[in-house]
Amino acid sequence: MSAEEAAASSPKKRKSRTTRGVKGKKKAKVFSRTEGQGKKAKKIDGRMKKLFRKRARDYNSDEDDDNEGNENLSLNSERTVEAESDEEAEEKELESGSEDEGDEMETGVMKFVEGCRAFSLAFNKITKKSVSEDLLGPVLSGHKKLLAEKLAEEEADHKVKADAKKEKNSLREKGHVKPANFLDSHEKFLISVATKGVVKLFNGVNKAQNAQKGLNPSRTKDAKALAKRRKAAFLSELHKKPTQDAESSKGANSAATKKEDGPGWAPLRDSYMLTSSKLKNWDKMQDTNAADDMGETPQFSSSDED
Amino acid sequence: MARFRNNKRKRDAVVRPIAKKPSGGGVDHVTGDKIPKSFVFSRGKLPGPLKQLQMDLRKLMLPFTALKLKEKKRNNLKDYLNVAGPMGVTHFLILSKTESASYLKVARTPQGPTLTFKICDYSLALDVAQSQLRPRCPQELFKNPPLIVLSGFGTGDQHLKLTTIMFQNIFPSIDINTVKLSSCQRIVLLNYNKETKLIDFRHYSIRLQPVGVSRRLRKFVQNHQAPDLRTLQDVSDFVTRAGYGSESEADDEAATVSLASDLGRANQASSKSAVKLQEIGPRMTLQLMKVEEGLCAGGVIFNEHGPVEEAKKQANQEENGEEDNNANQEENSEEDNDED
């Protein structure tokens, strides 16, 4: 198959190198040669190459023109033979794939040589063509529709993206409200509530601190008076429910008065160790006490802070 | 964990002296109460505005909070809890965001309880400042803790009571006998609306102005600049001619106080002063959704959506909160040791 193909393709190849007049003869010639002298051609190969190289060296570009007539003809014929024999050998090895490429290359070159006129014709046609004036320009005129389509598509894409962004942004900003420039009734109400609270506190502070104002704690007499006042406050505090006293750690009075009360350090107080039921029978339940120790201690420490 | 538990006693002996320090430092000098401290951080990724809100909340919680608390993606609640113990941090404010809404959790460390609020809407401090003609936000404002006013919570419901206590304890308590009025510069207001069950969260700055003094004189005393007298015939005009007072300047009897001590240049102790509040954000509308026993875990004491969901959620949380509970227990034992 490959040999036949090569044979079939060979005339084309020769076409490219030879002048048109000798078509038929050479075709036959080559055909016979290639069939018969497959091996011979190879043998010749090295010698021929040398010869050709030599000749090529001898030839200069200037001389080329003079010798073209006879020598080129003979040379060409021989060259083609050689080339074809080479190709055949190759084709036998590579079979189909490479051969086609070779073919196309050769045909391409041939068409370039041949198609100059066609090309010029085409070029002329294009240049002579009258182009309608358009925004998109003459070169892209053929793609006008496509371009418009693309632009529209892009726009749509952009829109989708913008929508997505908007949605995302709205999700980000969810619950975020910019307040109005004026105070509405609700805000005014809130401010009045807060103001009331502040006024209450300030008045309370005023009352408490004004009472102490004349008294200088560094003077013993005043200090006594202060202590008395605090004691009174403390006693009144005591007469309230005891639970309230414990709860209102925030209450300002209680914090101040507790200090007056007894020794600050918990072990010095009368009630030390008696309040916790668990420690009452400490000698009886030693084991359990050891276990409970951890849980119990913070209570004391908290009481001694007060 | 197991290893630690076995060696508990041994470890305690080593830890005690180190851990004792901060507990001594976290006490108010005057009243002797323990100063509550807070962390404001987020769980999960927050969008930009909420991050800003978080920053605003941190500013609001100043001075006893970590303003520049660095958060990392991998930080979990346990990490914060571990830091909170030695630092003496008592409260966590945790912001989070879901598809539907953003949430604020207010938790007491290390044991809870945790209140979960849904942030229905919010405005940042920046928005509030932009809405005002003359926003006022001097730096000294944040050097002292704010006062807190809770109103409308006294309906007797258990969860409201808990909310009240929680927010009362989030800021240092005030001793009326010793407090300096100059330290009362800000106020946080929480107003509970019975009908809508929403809590309005507002943050105001407190300003005191002497009553019965023309605006001109007040400005003259407050600013250290010579007044513009070009238009006047006589110096006495400056004092006698009444400045135009706007409606807001009309003295409101309810808003006047007599001060215990002098405050600034303008406010004398003997004279009366008017209390002016100006909002410095953030502003939030909160809805109490859930109250949990533990720190973001444990049994649900209160749920807005009713008991059916509550049971389900509780079951879920007991599964999830197993780890946190363990962390809590460890934390507790450590605290106990600090104090004894």
From TrEMBL, chain A:
One of its GO terms (biological process) is maturation of LSU-rRNA. GO terms for cellular component: preribosome, large subunit precursor. Residues 1-10 have a biased composition (Low complexity). Coiled coil: none annotated. Residues 83-106 have a biased composition (Acidic residues). Residues 237-248 have a biased composition (Basic and acidic residues). Residues 209-218 have a biased composition (Polar residues). Residues 1-107, 153-173, 209-270, 283-306 are annotated as: Disordered. Residues 11-30 have a biased composition (Basic residues). It comes from the Eukaryota. Belongs to the RRP15 family. This is RRP15-like protein. It comes from Stephania cephalantha.
Automatic annotation (TrEMBL), chain B:
One of its GO terms (molecular function) is rRNA binding. One of its GO terms (biological process) is rRNA processing. GO terms for cellular component: preribosome, large subunit precursor. Residues 307-316 have a biased composition (Basic and acidic residues). Residues 36-297 form the Brix domain. Residues 307-340 are annotated as: Disordered. Coiled coil: none annotated. SMART domains: Brix. Residues 319-340 have a biased composition (Acidic residues). This is Brix domain-containing protein. It comes from Stephania cephalantha.
